[in-house]
Structure formats: structure tokens, C-alpha cells
Design a protein that fits this description.
Number of helices of chain B: 20
Distance between the termini of chain B: 55 Å
Shape of chain A: globular
Strand order of the largest sheet of chain B: 3-5-1-12-9-10-11
Number of strands of chain A: 5
Distance between the termini of chain A: 52 Å
Structural class of chain B: alpha+beta
Helix content of chain B: 25-40%
Oligomer: heterodimer
Number of helices of chain A: 5
């Protein structure tokens, strides 16, 4: 098959070094090679956001880039998100606000929201709804996800 | 309100906002969904699917695919048939109005000789990797000779239409009716007013976020299958696969539905892939996994709704309804899906009375085959369609009579003191206070102030409308005797087992399945409440045929009403046996033993024992009178409901339309519901929110569309099929009352999972039409997309925007 490329990155703080095919998507790399199965794939057109991870602090749909392009970056997945104050606040808010039901879109949503509350402050509900339009949830109707965003934001503002 | 998890806290009970125990694994990436399971020596499958809607299979050439490195095999429908693999059964048989049975063509897991919809599976490739399997599936050469396709019910029933199933004269699967035809005709012939409406309930797709997946391995030593599948209904999968498809004993097949990423009905059937993958695992003597990507779910998941209806309402001068007459054509797709024919018949027409006193009703439904994906249940399943018919008619009738929509409804509502109420379609509503929900909803939205808000919006160049739905649904499927009488080939009770372990913790087994509904929390609350055990000491097990006695899964808002009731009955049995044990230990008789706050005591002695002490004793019965009762404390029940449950309520919403773009914004959405007793308000409200989003999605955004000539699916990805996103929806104002608990189950619960979709679509369509009423619009079909609304405004003869169409 195709030629392999050596990629190294930090994933949830751990240094990782693997040979991967140049056409392997980052989502496949994290899910199938690293077996971090908290990363979910919900579509094949980069619409749903279930596979969102943090790459150097930016929320990225990991189905949109090839694994070799993540060489040298620092990746956070749902498995490592609670290591930071913002991640902990968001995870706690999703739990306390019932911002998840089946749990499938949740990892991607949590990471999108971590980026949102890290990079913004005092957004209102309308802005929050627009900010997460890259993630689809079929269970919650978004109501409690928006509440979770608001709670995480005020938690972090008070911290 | 936060749930206090401290050990000192009193046991938490029904009604608490207990936070969910399942969240911990989902929020740490430790959920385990079917695709997360990888067996040693795992192989992967990919399906070859039809690109034509209707065609004869002339030849299948697998040579090139088989030549590819890593490919282990390619199989076709002929291979399965030669191996004795049977057709996938439908579990509901409809009897037509002339007494004949519905037409029931075979649906083989892989097509044989003919394909009948785009996506129909023709062959399957097995390979060492998923990527290789997919690549090789594209190298299987299938020679198809296209035939003329039929997509709509109108085209499918037209004279001379090509038939989907050879050997049948037409595409009519069944012609069914309910109600009294002659009495209804008489009511209409003498009525002063008859209003009519033609409406479409659009085809949509459920789209849980987890695509379906199956992973099976075969253990030759014991001739046993182990199947992981993304299903709402693992025992049904086992029963149908064993009995009809693979012909193996049920004790040789374990089906596990682990964490499942949403269902909404679309995962409560048995799909072709669930037959093919286990068969392959036996054939290959190696585990085989298949996971759909989203494009494949569009082509292989069952679709939903797709009704064309003509409905008429007869009224007198005072607005009292005299009769209802409905004729519906339901698109069943190319094959009968597991529940397919039941949805547009018994889950639809019996609910056409809605919340109203309608003396006579007659409804007929034609089930029609077409060259489209099979149509089956989706959240609400038949009941949203019924609600849409009756509520749209009420709006249209009010306009015809120049009467306020609320006043017309109030004149016809069934009142609380008429309960139990037998409808003209044969449903017995046991309890409900419809006027109470309506009154509260009107008050919450300030109905009286609406015209001012409409005027204010108009001054801002916006068209504001208000719409409502008074809904009622039949849930808690269902009494076995009744189900059998109306065509079900399975029963619909539920199992529940409560096991107290020697250390006093409890393991609870339910045949219901949680795929987002939070049963691990809510069911623990039920058992905690009844046995006075700490919530944290109760573990709920679901989704595994090897661990659970039997089950009929989760759909139709049945889990709490039927599955929860089974657990309530088992909990009572545990207490009953506990009293026998306590009587022995207290040296008294059973009738003298009381159980309160977790303690067994007797007035005859000052000794007492906690339920944990009783549990321990039950497993160490050294001095028990074992001729009177057995050791252990583990009770199983099969709860068969006495009636359906009838959740109901009023949903009301305001929308604003921008006449320049046709875009519709949902400004407020209020739901006032009666779900009977609430086990966990947080979970219930979450269920309502999700249902409303899906209901609004159908009204404004979602539409599964086919090219009507070729039968090609036009909306085949999330780029074409508009899923609701956060910015499309408002925050919801949800409340409920508990004044009318269900009268016939031990918990008083009615079910909450589907309410949002049942009323949601209707409410928004009602509001959209109301916003356009100044243009003389009385009805538009869903979805009310910007393009459709914009065109409607411009076509209207009363519109100031007329003639600006470009």
C-alpha cells in the first residue's frame, strides 16, 4: 500500500511517535491507532463535529486533516480534557446541566466548548448557539448544552 | 437542585433531580459503543449497494475484488440463500378491510435477482481492514438492468405503474380501515359545515449520531454467536435472527447492545446487516465487523413518516365536531421493515380523536410499496401524523367558522370528569386534564397579548404567528392480548429483575434498553424508592441477552411505563420475600412484619433488621425454614400492561418570518405536559427538549427527498439533509403537572420520550400558517423552508410582496 510517514505529537500530554500512511485521517489515527475511542465519527462530510479535538488549543474536526499534518502538535481528546481547569469546568457543567444523553456527540461538543470558553468571555446564549453550530446533537435539543456553556463560562469567570 | 451524593444522605427517590450515573463514562471517553469493540483476528465487511432504484441483477463479477490483497471473501444473496439464510420477518400483520391479509414479500438480507431501492445491498466483501473492504466493494462489478421506478404513493398506485414486487398486481400492500364508515357518512351528510384539507407528512430520517454497526464472532467450540449491535432491542434481534433468518437455537446466540448512540426508533428493527455479519463470522471462522458511515446510513437506515392525507371534519354551527373522515396513503418503501405496517395503521389512526369528543370517526389507510428505503418508526411513530391531521383540521375549521382556535378546541375537549373516555376509534383514555394543560400554556405565552406582539413585529417588517398543538399519544406499548388481536406477532410486556446481593447492594436487570434516556439513573431511582436502598448501591444492567432474562427493548415511550413497572413489581416481590425472612428472624408471623424506611420490624418485638441484613441472611440461610421459602433474594417479573398510557399536553409557540427571505425564527416554545408521575424531572425535561428539536426540525428544516423519476436519493449527506443545529432552535419553556397519574400501572407513569415530536411539528406548522394568514394562506406543507415560505408569500393574491418573484 502507500508509503508510511513518521509522525510525532503529544496526545493528552503523552509523547506519541508512529509511522502512518500519508492518507490516514487524524480521526482514524486517534481512534484506530491510538485506540482513544472516546473520539467518535458521526458523518463523512465534516458536518457533525463528533470528532472534534483540541490541536494546540484550537478546536479541530479531526476528520478534516491527515494525521501527518498534526506532526509536532499537542492534541487533547476527551480522555485528557479534564486535566485543565477549563476542561474540568466544561465536563462538570455538562454533567450538572444534563448536557448529554446518548454520549456520542458529547466528546466533540465538550472540546468545542472548551475552546469557546477558553477564548471568549461573557458571550450570551445566542452567541453560544452560533458558536457551536459546527456540532450536531440529536438528543438534547441543545437546550441543556447551552446551559452548560453558560455555567462553565461563569464558573471560569469566577475562578 | 443538585443531588447530594454523600453517604449520609437519605436514599433518593422518585421525583428527584438525580444527576446521571452514566455521564461519568461518556464524559471521560470511556463509553463503549459497538464500533469500539475490536476482537482478536478482527475482519471487516463492506457492502456493495445498488445505485439504481429498481433494476434486475443480471450478473455479479467478484473476480477483481477477490484478487485484491487482504480480501478474504465476497458473498452474494445466492450464497446466503444456498446456506439456508431466511428472509427478515415483519412482526406485524395487517388485515385489510375486506378481510384479506397484507401482501408480505420476502426481504432477503442480500438482494436476489432484483434491487428495489437505491442502497439495496447486493453483495458483501470481507477483508483484513476496513479500508480494504471498502476499496474492494467498489471493485465488485454488478450488471444491473434498470427498470422504471416509483417513488411517490401517487405514482406507485397509478394504473400501469411498475410493480416493486414481481407476482403482485399492484403496489398496494394493504387497504385498511378503522371506525364506523356508515355512521360517519350519516354524520357528514347532515352536517352544516364540512372542512377539508389535503396534507403531506414529509419523509424524514431519524439520524441518531452513532451510525449503525454490527460486530459478530462465532465460537465453533460451542456453536455460539456473540453479536454486538447498535440496537434498541437486542432480544428481538436474537429472536428474529434465530427463529427466521439464521435458524439457530436462542441459547446459542448472545446479542449485546452496548452503549448505543441514540436510536429514536430507527434502531428497533432487525436490519439486513444484522443477519449478514453473524453469518459471515461463522463462514469465515473469524470475527467480522461492519460500521456504516453517514452516507451509508442514508441508504440503509429506515426512513420515516411519508403520508399523503385527505381529511374532513364535520361541525355544527356552534363549532361542535360531529365527525372525522380521513384517507391516508402511507409510503412503506420497498420492503416491509420490522414494524413497518403497524406504524401508519394501529399507531396512527386510533389516535385521530386527539383530545376531542368526536362522536364518529372513519379512517382508511392504504399502505403502498415504492422504490425507496423502507419506512418504519421514528420518534412518535404514527402519533405525530395523527396529531398533525386533527390539529391542522381544528385550525382550518376555526378559520372557516370565524371562531378563535382556542375557543373551538375548548368546546370539543374531553373533560377530566369524562374519564375514562372511549374514543370512536376504540382507545380508552384512562385519565387526563386537557383543559388544564391548555390553560397553563395560554397563560405562559400570554395568549391575550399576542395580537399586540404581532402588530409590533409587523411594524418591524416581520410576520409573527402563534400556533399550538393539543396532543395526546398512546404509549407504553402494549397489552399483549390487544396487540395480538390487532396483528402483532410478538408480545410487548417487559421483564425486570431485582437482585439483592449478599452485601445488600442491588443489581437490577431490565429488558428495556437505554440509548440516551438515562435508565441507569431513573431505574435505580425506582428501586431505591421502593426498597429504601441508597441510590449508589444500585446498578442497572441492560442490553445483553446473556444477562437479562428477556426483553422487548425501548421505543414508543414504553421504558418507564412497562420496564419500570416490571421493576416495581419485582421490588414488591423482594419486599414480600424479605418479610418472610424477617418474620423468621423476628420470631413472629409474616402478617406482623412491617417494612418502613429500609427496616423490617414487628410490633411483637423491639428487634428489627435492615434490608441489607435481610439480604445477607437470605444467602446464608443456616437456620431458615427452607421448606417454607428458598434461599436468596432475587425476583423476576414480566409486566404486561393493562392498557396504553396516554401522555398529553399543550404545546404553543410563536414564530417570526422575514418576508424578504422566508426565513422563520422560533421565538418562544412552551410545552405543558402531563406525563403522570415524574421519576426524574431533569431527565424528563431533557427528553422533551430533544423531542421538540426533532419536531421543529421536521417542520422547518429536515426533508428526505428523492428524484421522482429515477428514485435517486437527493438528500444523501448532512450537506443536503438539514439537521437542526443550536442556532436553529430557541430555549424551551417546559413544565408539567402530576395531577393525573396513570391509573393502571404501579408507578403512575405515562412516558415522555415522544411528546416533543408529537406536538412539536404541528405547533410550528400552525404558527407558520398563522403568520401568513394576512395573505389568505390556510395551509402549507412541511417543511416550511425559507424558499417555500417566500414563494407562498409572493404567490398570494393579498400579498404586498406579490410579483417580486425572480
Amino acid at each position: 500500500m502507500s508509503e508510511k510517514i513518521c509522525v510525532s505529537m503529544r496526545v493528552n500530554g503523552e509523547p506519541i511517535c508512529r509511522d502512518v500512511s500519508h492518507e490516514m485521517l487524524l480521526a482514524e489515527f486517534i481512534r484506530n491507532e491510538l485506540r482513544l475511542t472516546g473520539l467518535h465519527v458521526g458523518c463523512d462530510t465534516s458536518q457533525c463535529g463528533a470528532c472534534t479535538i483540541l490541536m494546540d488549543g484550537d478546536a479541530v474536526k479531526s476528520c478534516t486533516i491527515f494525521a501527518p499534518l498534526a506532526d509536532g502538535t499537542s492534541i487533547t481528546t476527551i480522555e485528557g480534557v479534564a486535566e485543565t481547569p477549563a476542561g474540568r469546568a466544561v465536563v462538570t457543567a455538562f454533567h450538572e446541566c444534563h448536557g448529554l444523553q446518548c454520549g456520542f456527540c458529547t466528546p466533540g461538543f465538550v472540546l468545542s466548548v472548551v475552546e469557546l470558553v477558553t477564548k471568549t468571555s461573557s458571550i450570551d446564549e445566542t452567541e453560544a448557539r452560533q458558536a457551536v453550530e459546527g456540532n450536531i446533537c440529536r438528543c438534547t435539543g441543545y437546550h441543556n448544552i447551552v446551559r452548560a456553556i453558560m455555567q462553565a463560562q461563569s464558573e471560569l469567570a469566577g475562578a | 437542585m443538585k443531588y447530594d451524593r454523600s453517604a449520609e444522605a437519605a436514599p433518593k427517590r422518585i421525583g428527584d433531580h438525580a444527576l446521571r450515573v452514566e455521564d461519568r463514562r461518556f464524559l471521560s471517553g470511556k463509553g463503549r459503543y459497538t464500533d469500539d469493540v475490536v476482537f482478536p483476528n478482527q475482519l471487516y465487511a463492506a457492502f456493495v449497494r445498488s445505485q439504481h432504484a429498481h433494476a434486475e441483477i443480471k450478473a455479479i463479477d467478484t473476480t477483481e475484488a477477490l484478487r485484491m490483497p487482504g480480501v478474504r471473501g465476497v458473498f452474494t444473496g445466492a450464497d446466503l440463500k444456498a446456506d439456508g439464510v431466511g428472509a427478515i420477518p415483519c412482526i406485524w400483520e395487517i388485515t385489510c378491510k375486506d378481510g384479506s391479509k397484507m401482501i408480505e414479500p420476502d426481504r432477503y438480507p442480500l438482494a436476489i435477482s432484483k434491487v428495489r431501492h437505491v442502497g439495496d445491498a447486493i453483495a458483501v466483501v470481507v477483508a483484513d481492514s476496513e479500508q480494504t473492504a471498502r476499496l474492494a466493494s467498489r471493485c465488485v462489478e454488478v450488471e444491473l438492468e434498470p427498470l422504471r421506478a416509483v417513488v411517490t404513493v401517487g405514482d406507485a398506485l397509478a394504473p400501469g405503474a411498475p410493480v416493486v414486487h414481481e407476482g403482485t398486481a399492484t403496489n398496494l400492500c394493504f387497504d385498511w380501515s378503522i371506525g364506523d364508515h356508515d355512521k360517519t357518512e350519516r354524520a357528514f351528510s347532515s352536517a352544516r359545515h364540512i372542512v377539508q384539507l389535503d396534507l403531506v407528512n414529509s419523509r424524514i430520517i431519524a439520524h441518531p449520531m452513532e451510525p449503525r454497526a454490527v460486530n459478530a464472532q462465532y465460537h465453533p467450540a460451542g456453536s455460539e454467536f456473540e453479536i454486538y449491535t447498535s440496537s434498541q432491542n437486542p432480544h428481538l434481534v436474537r429472536m428474529l435472527l434465530c427463529h427466521s433468518v439464521l435458524h439457530v437455537p436462542e441459547n446459542k446466540m448472545r446479542v449485546v447492545a452496548p452503549d448505543v448512540g441514540g436510536g429514536f426508533g430507527v434502531k428497533c428493527y432487525v436490519y439486513p446487516e444484522e443477519a449478514v455479519i453473524p453469518w459471515l463470522s461463522r463462514k469465515m471462522r473469524s470475527p467480522v465487523k461492519w460500521t456504516a458511515d453517514r452516507s451509508e446510513t442514508f441508504l440503509s437506515d429506515a426512513h420515516a413518516r411519508d403520508h399523503e392525507t385527505h381529511a374532513e371534519l364535520a361541525l355544527d354551527d356552534d363549532g361542535r365536531v360531529l365527525g372525522l373522515r380521513v384517507s391516508t396513503k402511507a409510503n412503506l418503501g420497498a420492503y416491509l421493515s420490522t414494524w413497518g405496517p403497524c406504524i401508519p395503521t394501529y399507531l396512527y389512526a386510533p389516535m385521530l380523536s386527539g383530545q376531542y369528543q368526536i362522536p364518529v370517526i372513519y379512517a382508511e389507510v392504504k399502505g403502498v410499496f415504492s422504490n425507496t428505503l423502507p419506512v418504519d418508526a421514528y420518534r412518535g411513530a404514527g402519533r405525530p401524523e395523527a396529531n398533525y391531521v386533527v390539529e391542522r383540521l381544528m385550525d382550518v375549521a376555526a378559520a372557516h367558522l370565524r371562531m378563535d382556535r382556542i375557543e373551538l378546541r375548548k368546546r370539543n375537549l374531553i373533560s377530566r370528569n369524562q374519564m375514562p373516555y372511549l374514543t370512536a376509534t376504540g382507545m380508552t383514555y384512562d385519565t387526563g386534564d386537557f383543559a388544564l394543560c391548555l390553560t397553563r400554556a395560554l397563560s405562559a405565552i400570554d395568549y391575550d397579548g399576542f395580537e399586540q406582539r404581532r402588530a409590533d413585529a409587523r411594524a418591524n417588517g416581520k410576520l409573527r404567528g402563534i400556533g399550538l398543538s393539543c396532543y395526546i399519544e398512546a404509549c407504553g406499548l402494549s397489552p399483549s392480548r390487544l396487540s395480538g388481536k390487532i396483528g402483532s406477532r410478538i408480545a410487548l410486556y417487559e421483564s425486570g429483575q431485582v437482585r439483592l446481593n449478599p452485601d445488600g447492594t442491588a443489581t437490577v436487570f431490565t429488558g428495556a434498553h437505554s440509548h440516551g434516556q438515562g435508565h441507569e439513573t431513573a431505574f435505580a431511582q425506582i428501586v431505591s424508592d421502593m426498597l429504601c436502598l441508597p441510590f449508589e448501591d444500585i446498578e442497572v444492567v441492560h442490553g445483553d441477552t446473556a444477562r437479562i432474562a428477556f426483553g422487548l427493548g425501548t421505543y414508543g415511550s414504553r421504558s418507564a411505563a412497562v420496564g419500570g413497572s416490571a421493576l416495581a413489581v419485582s421490588s414488591r416481590k423482594v419486599l414480600e420475600k424479605g418479610k418472610h425472612i424477617a418474620a423468621h428472624m423476628l420470631e413472629t408471623t409474616v402478617d406482623k412484619v412491617a417494612f418502613k424506611d429500609g427496616i423490617f420490624s414487628s410490633s411483637t418485638t423491639n428487634k428489627s433488621f435492615s434490608i441489607k441484613e435481610i439480604a445477607r441472611s437470605a444467602y446464608i440461610p443456616h437456620n431458615f425454614p427452607l421448606d417454607n421459602f428458598e434461599p436468596g433474594l432475587d425476583e423476576l417479573s414480566f409486566y404486561d400492561p393493562l392498557n396504553f398510557t396516554f401522555p398529553n399536553g399543550t404545546q404553543i409557540a410563536e414564530v417570526e418570518i422575514d418576508p424578504e427571505t422566508g426565513a422563520c425564527e422560533v421565538c418562544r416554545f412552551i410545552a405543558v405536559d402531563d406525563f403522570g408521575v415524574i421519576i426524574n424531572p431533569m431527565i424528563v425535561e431533557g427528553q422533551v427538549h430533544g423531542g421538540l428539536a426533532q419536531g421543529i426540525g421536521q417542520a422547518l428544516l429536515e426533508h428526505c427527498r428523492y428524484d421522482e423519476e429515477t428514485g435517486q436519493l437527493l438528500t444523501g449527506t448532512f450537506m443536503d439533509y438539514c439537521m437542526p443545529r443550536a442556532s436553529d432552535l430557541p430555549s424551551f419553556e417546559v413544565s408539567y403537572h402530576e395531577q393525573c397519574p396513570c391509573t393502571h400501572n404501579p408507578l403512575g407513569v405515562k412516558g415522555c420520550g415522544e411528546a416533543g415530536t408529537i406536538g412539536g411539528t404541528t405547533t410550528i406548522m400552525s404558527a407558520v400558517v398563522d403568520s401568513l394568514k394576512e395573505f389568505g394562506v390556510t395551509h402549507i406543507d412541511m417543511p416550511a423552508t425559507p424558499e417555500k415560505v417566500w414563494s407562498t408569500i409572493r404567490r398570494s393574491k393579498d400579498s404586498p410582496f406579490q410579483g417580486q418573484q425572480r
